[in-house]
Amino acid sequence: MDTAAERIEFETLLLARHLTRPRRGDGDLDASAYLLLSRIDIDGPLSVGELREAFGLDTSTLSRQTTAMLKSGLVHRIPDPAGGLARKFRITADGKRRLDAERAGNVRGLETVLEGWTTDDRDAFANLLERFNLDIERRAGRPWPRPES
Amino acid sequence: MDTAAERIEFETLLLARHLTRPRRGDGDLDASAYLLLSRIDIDGPLSVGELREAFGLDTSTLSRQTTAMLKSGLVHRIPDPAGGLARKFRITADGKRRLDAERAGNVRGLETVLEGWTTDDRDAFANLLERFNLDIERRAGRPWPRPES
DNA sequence: CACAGCAGTTGCACAATACACATTGATTGC
DNA sequence: GCAATCAATGTGTATTGTGCAACTGCTGTG
Predict the structure, then answer these.
(1) How far off is chain B from A109, nearest CA to CA, in Å?
(2) What is the domain partition of chain A in residue ranges?
(3) Closest CA of chain A from B40, distance in Å
(4) Count H helices, E strands: chain A?
(5) pTM for this prediction
(6) Smaller CB count within 10 Å for chain B: N or C?
(7) Tens digit of pLDDT for each residue in B5-29?
């Protein structure tokens, strides 16, 4: 009774705590803004509806979160370039700067966790994590774009 | 600009969503009960204060969550065997049964995600995940016991 | 023009959590 | 042996993130 799947189930349970708990005002971006902005940065301008589709959150939630991002200057609202009815949110220069800063801070923290890891172990972990996520997304029918790698 | 740490940062961000979002009444245990029960199952009876230490949550939160578990028959309250003042929560036979059922359900779901994975990949992922968690816990000074492995 | 349909917004409700204060039960100085 | 105290827990209230449902506003169609 100690299959890899059981171990993975256990470890992902713990990881979920580690990943969600420490989000305590690290940077100036709250968790939702960081995630949304990261997606918009990769994908280009997105509407509330597209964000809803991407995140599986309610449109009302996304509406509030995007409004907050708008007020805080992370994005601006633009008409759909394709002529559609929806407005889209495009990342601002300031938003991009703050996103990159936030990410750099996260990566710095991660580096201290990975201190004793060899390059091979890091690469292997990154690869397996990516594959795991892709398989979850495939199973959920909600694929997530990766940065051009 | 594509270090392993950056990729891991990105993927853990996504994983956090995948891990927390789908907790939608899968089984009869809510997320907190599953987590607490899992810890109590491994560690043996724990008090509210010990759970607070373990999870980094407020005692008030733990007090409510343990009360709910008590009412739902997952644990019972026992005096501290060491004679201390605190009461401890011990898992009940029913709680153990329901915990195992919940875990089995989770593992089944995980199996479908891991469908195309070789045994070696699964083992490697489990090992790296465990190491990652241990390093996070070490860094946070809050180690988590593993099941006797 | 009136209306059907859709994207977005706003009004509630609820769950998880934290903070501050109340309660309870054991310990100890006198 | 009792009052002061303290440690562990519980309760009241606020905040935050979220969902559902009802509403708004806009667009294209008859």
Answers:
(1) 10
(2) 21-113, 116-149
(3) 14
(4) 6, 2
(5) 0.88
(6) N
(7) 999 999 999 999 888 876 554 578 9
